[in-house]
Amino acid sequence: MAGPKRRGDGRSPSPTVREIDDRNSDLTETSQLLGSNGFGARKDSWDNDLDFQHLPWWRRPSVFWLLGPYAVFTLAFGGIIVPKLNLILDLVCKQYFADEQLADPQFTYKPIVLGSDNPQCNIPAVQRNVAEFMLTLNLVIGGLSAIVAPKLGHLSDRYGRRKLMALASCGGVLSEIVTILCAKYPQTFNYRWMILGAVFDGITGSFTAGSILSQSYTSDCTPPSKRAVSIGYIHACLFTGLALGPLMAGYFVKWTGTLISIFYVALGCHTFFILFVRFVLPESLSKRRQLLAREKLLRSEAEQAGNEGSSSRLLHNPFATLKILWPTGPGTSSRLRINLVALAVADTIIMGSMMAVGNVLMLYSEYMFGWGNFETSRFISSLSMIRVFVLMAIFPIINYVFRIRPAARRRRESGAPLIEANSGADNLDVWILRFALTSDLLGCFGYLFSRNQHLFFASGMVTALGGLGSATVQAAVTKHVPASRIGQVLGAVGFMQALSRVVGPVLFNGLYAMTVGVFPQAIFVLLAGLFGIGLTCAFILKPHIHWEEIGEEQDEQPPSQPSRRLDDSAALLTANEEAII
């Protein structure tokens, strides 16, 4: 159990106060107004909406503003996965046979038609070249986004979310332009130019940055009691894109008769997302909170005078971004550090396995059960749609029954106002995470022992219930830290996700390649082991642990009385950050 919190003067609170605090934190994260600061609210209370109360509805931030454009963004992301793979296969195949003909003028081959069935490309040499090229693209995008995404997350705490969300999608625009050039003018732009597109995508954070910034935006404008559900909506958009994107792309390519057309659509989707986020989406962080975050950074760097600045440390050591997961100093505890690390590991396993196992799962099902494109597409789409249903329908009901209704009942019984407060993950978060990881683990055992395609399909539906875990774990992370550090901590989580995007496919693809002829189920043994580690982390997690920043009440100024020193801090911004923004 975490030790008692200390006051600013170093004295422990009285037992009576501690008992009251513990009793209220055990009830819910919507707690009674026990003590107050200058604004009549607890220091750790959620009051992000106060800065926007005077604005009309169309200028107030809300997760519902983001769902539409984010759905378009994920449809573009999911829609080009298969077409881009096929395009790369055709371009690599064409280059391979052209090189063969150059070496042997007597060599002839059937022409390669982009987007058509090209059976002459189904040879080991071409498949090997495609695999190596895809690995190169993943390494470039994953490596660069692992460095950039945490930086963007940290910057967004000080400069707002929407500008950086737009920036994260700019790389996708440039990447699609390069892809279109390679597809339309293959004689001028060799397929290896796509590596440049991967660089553009990676240096703006890629999908990883877009995801963590969207979750940061959602955390800003959603109270803790509803945060997991709102982040669940964001994840439901992702799974909808993964389920419907390939299907819609397939029909669109068939309708237009050209593979390149879908990349124009993806380019348009990225452009729409950028314009909407930059000029329509209300900013979720007020100027006051942005200035507070900047001042805190300046004060922190001033305390470390003589050392390299945070930007230099991040540049020289990208792993420095993980320091936020092991905070020290006033307001922190060993229990908080254990919780943050456990949540980060669980999130990396959940999201990393989702991104890494998909291709191998399709290869395994086609190898074991003789599935074709139709059966495989039906399985993947069903898996994604079950996740969407769980996140959009089941999760809100669970949240209402076990969190919202009990809080409302306590409010009626006590007659005292209830306020939203960041008090760490509550008991509901912990048990949902344990249930989700248990379902993932059971589904893995189902995959492992299924020798019948119907049992295999049913096992996949069991793992779909694990979709609750992805939203819950990321919401729980944001509840552990002050509002001014949400972007930074999600950036660190995004860093680990980006690394898993690099390591995961290599690990699972390599293991499958080595064992497919002897024990093809070995990948599920590895996957079950990873989910076992994640489930262990979920049982290590303790509820109601929160990072309380000492002196925060002096920093938090009421919206109507901005501190003059905050305005002065704007003039002290470092030149490199101004250049980035």
TrEMBL record:
<keyword id="KW-0812">Transmembrane</keyword>
<feature type="region of interest" description="Disordered">
    <location>
        <begin position="1"/>
        <end position="36"/>
    </location>
</feature>
<keyword id="KW-0472">Membrane</keyword>
<feature type="transmembrane region" description="Helical">
    <location>
        <begin position="384"/>
        <end position="402"/>
    </location>
</feature>
<dbReference type="GO" id="GO:0016020">
    <property type="term" value="C:membrane"/>
</dbReference>
<feature type="transmembrane region" description="Helical">
    <location>
        <begin position="63"/>
        <end position="82"/>
    </location>
</feature>
<protein>
    <recommendedName>
        <fullName>Major facilitator superfamily (MFS) profile domain-containing protein</fullName>
    </recommendedName>
</protein>
<feature type="transmembrane region" description="Helical">
    <location>
        <begin position="340"/>
        <end position="364"/>
    </location>
</feature>
<dbReference type="InterPro" id="IPR011701">
    <property type="entry name" value="MFS"/>
</dbReference>
<feature type="compositionally biased region" description="Basic and acidic residues">
    <location>
        <begin position="1"/>
        <end position="10"/>
    </location>
</feature>
<feature type="transmembrane region" description="Helical">
    <location>
        <begin position="455"/>
        <end position="477"/>
    </location>
</feature>
<feature type="transmembrane region" description="Helical">
    <location>
        <begin position="259"/>
        <end position="281"/>
    </location>
</feature>
<dbReference type="InterPro" id="IPR036259">
    <property type="entry name" value="MFS_trans_sf"/>
</dbReference>
<feature type="transmembrane region" description="Helical">
    <location>
        <begin position="133"/>
        <end position="152"/>
    </location>
</feature>
<feature type="transmembrane region" description="Helical">
    <location>
        <begin position="518"/>
        <end position="541"/>
    </location>
</feature>
<dbReference type="GO" id="GO:0022857">
    <property type="term" value="F:transmembrane transporter activity"/>
</dbReference>
<feature type="transmembrane region" description="Helical">
    <location>
        <begin position="233"/>
        <end position="253"/>
    </location>
</feature>
<feature type="transmembrane region" description="Helical">
    <location>
        <begin position="193"/>
        <end position="213"/>
    </location>
</feature>
<dbReference type="Pfam" id="PF07690">
    <property type="entry name" value="MFS_1"/>
</dbReference>
<keyword id="KW-1133">Transmembrane helix</keyword>
<feature type="transmembrane region" description="Helical">
    <location>
        <begin position="164"/>
        <end position="187"/>
    </location>
</feature>
